Amino acid sequence: MGAADLVSLGWNERWQTLWGDEAPDDSAPGRVIRHDGVAALVALASGTGHVALSGAVGPVTVGDWVAVEGAGDDGIGESARVGAVLTRSSLLERRDPSVNSAQLLAANVDRVVMVCGADRPLRHGRIQRGAALAWEAGAVPAVVVTKADLTDDMESLLEEVRTADPGLDVLATSAVTHVGIDDLAGLIGHGTVVFIGESGAGKSSLVNALAGEQVAVARNVRSGDAKGRHTTTTRQLHVLPTGGCVIDSPGIREMGIWATSDSVDAAFGDIGDLAAHCRFNDCAHGTEPGCAVMAAVADGTLDADRLASWRSLREEAAAAQLRNDPRARKQAGKRFGKMAREAQKYRQGR
Ligand code: GDP
Ligand code: ZN
């Protein structure tokens, strides 16, 4: 990648404002395209290159906006280093409850797009988990059912998603016929999205279809040598010709990423809305009289499977939270509040 236009990378007024407060003097703004261990591949207006990381600025991940110190005018020199990481607008992270640290997966994403292949059964549990993770990160979830060319009945697949996951944006695409690719580009707009979904779902092929060229390594187009394979395990940000950015995340599985009960609730806003009408504030939606949730299941407005998923994800989140240390819990608490308010605003705004 040569010199990058900061606006195509997602630079906007928010970053401009933060820049004034957070960037060291004589530094240049850049976006992390890839994390390569001791260095980050960073795109700046003057060029793209490796920039050394120092522990002093904290962990850095793909999608971060950073202040680069010591970059030359015509690209990035040997002495370039990350001097600051701008305050993130969202953060997708993996938290292993057994160790006391979080692994950063992607920063500053507006949307988490769950990619499902039409050539295999839809897994609603995964979609619901992904939606919870999106809210947890501070991003808005969406579902893409791809490989439309491999099914005769895309409409019923979409209907299935709409029933199991009401309120989620859902699109049909094909990387082969390019059906829906413009719609997906429209959904991304000038924002940044991260694709998640199981291996083989069609994520890399979608990145390539959006980019209009081969930028991500899809599984069946590996270069002949065995080394080609390892490139698929690197998370990387791609700038689209239409203006937005996509982070392809071969390493990100929705399974096992830490979510909180509040972000689970944000993903199941319809159930929360119903619960507000239960007779008792502490209704467990079991056999209580005047339970609006059970009434909705009885009259068919709420899918019983969806209620069951909500229960099991909530239990899982509660267990994970308990295993976490109090400090992490407290920090997360601040984020839930913000996230839940944003989820609420988002739902009300649509
Ligand atoms: P990823 O692991 O999620 O990145 O999935 P890939 O993009 O590597 O795709 C997995 C397989 O599905 C590859 O063999 C692709 O060629 C195939 N594939 C991806 N998208 C489509 C599509 O829209 N239509 C068809 N027929 N095959 C697709
Ligand atoms: Zn109830």
What does this entry look like structurally?
With 350 residues, this protein is α/β, with parallel strands linked by helices. Helix content is 33%, strand content 21%. It has helices spanning 13-22, 124-137, 154-164, 181-188, 203-211, 261-267, 269-275, 292-298, 304-323, 326-349, and strands at 27-36, 39-44, 47-52, 65-69, 81-85, 91-95, 102-107, 111-117, 140-146, 169-172, 192-196, 236-239, 245-248. Strands 10-9-8-11-13-12 form a 6-stranded mixed β-sheet, sandwiched between helices. The protein has a 5-stranded antiparallel β-sheet with strand order 3-2-1-4-5, with helices on one face. Helix 2 (124-137) crosses helix 6 and helix 6 (261-267) packs parallel to helix 10. The longest helix has 24 residues, at 326-349. The protein is globular. 41% of the residues are buried. Residues 219-232 have low confidence and may be disordered.
